[in-house]
Amino acid sequence: MTYPHNPVMTPVINATEEDRAAFLVRVYQHLALAVAAFVGFETILFVTGVAEAIHSFLVRTGGVAWLAILGAFMVANWFAAQSVNKLDNPSAQYGGLFGIAGAQALIFAPFLYQVFSYNGAGTVASAAVVTGIGFVGLSVVAFVTRRDLSFLRPLVMWGFMAALVLIVAGVIFGFQLGVVFSVAMVGLSGASILYQTQNIIRRYPTWAHVGAAVALFGSLMTMFWYILRIFSRR
Fold first, then answer.
1. What was the pLDDT predicted at 5?
2. How many CB atoms lie within 10 A of CB 51?
3. 115, 101, 92, 119: which is closest to 44 by C-alpha?
4. Is residue 59 part of a domain?
5. Residue 217 pLDDT > 60, yes or no?
6. Which residue in 34, 91, 137, 213 has the fewest CB atoms around it within 10 Å?
């Protein structure tokens, strides 16, 4: 795939059918690459004992440390988003892709360690399968529906902002966000996947497949987090 020196921001929806198909293949190839990178980084964190160390540290220090990790995760997400939006710089885009995969692995490490320890690998596998099925189903809906789903954008933006406020408040004031919150977050992640899947076709140029993959990856991992949270409470 070559990147134009003076890119014209022609969205994929206005490209030829062949170019649209090639774009989508590249998007999902890079989404799979991001997932594989996440698994690779997570494996390193477990093998080296870093996941256990982070979990132990969080158990000892409590909510403040979780806020610090959440803040670092948000900063890493921001830098990754800035990198993948540099459409004429493929190196920066791939740096953003692997950067967000590493950040996701780091934030997941203590949670996965806890689930593996108390619930077993079967819980993680079940959550992963349900997440995959949900993602595929939502992607199909986004592709086949003729309705413009851009109305979901403000819902997703304000929904995640409200969720962040609740998470921070829960850490500060010590109240638990239960299963209802997790179910709501799964629904919000689903809305995000619907919007982003349609958005990458309507707004992204044909060479912006890495940025499109990263956008989908973030929502996919958020859905996995909260489905795993539901499964781990059984």
1. 47
2. 24
3. 101
4. yes
5. yes
6. 91
Q: Which domain holds residue 39?
A: 16-232
| Residue 117: its H or E element | helix 90-118
| Residue 49 included in any domain | yes
* Tally of CB atoms within 10 A around 176: 6
Q: Which residue has the higher pLDDT, 55 or 65?
A: 55
Closest CA to 2 of 16, 17, 22, 28: 22
Instruction: Specify the amino acid at residue 125.
Output: A
For the record, the structure tokens of 77 come out as: 């997400």
Residue 4 resides in a domain: no
How far is it, in rounded angstroms, from Cα 230 to Cα 234? 7
What is the per-residue pLDDT across 81-102, written as a single tens digit (0 to 9) for each? 666 666 666 677 788 888 889 8
Give how far the C-alpha of residue 163 lies from the chain's centroid of Cα atoms, to the nearest Å. 15
Type and span of the H or E element at 157 = helix 152-173
Query: Does residue 178 sit within a domain?
Result: yes
Q: Which of 27-36, 81-90, 120-129, 169-178 has the lowest mean pLDDT?
A: 81-90
Q: Are 163 and 188 in contact (CB under 8 A)?
A: yes
Our count of domains for the chain comes to 1
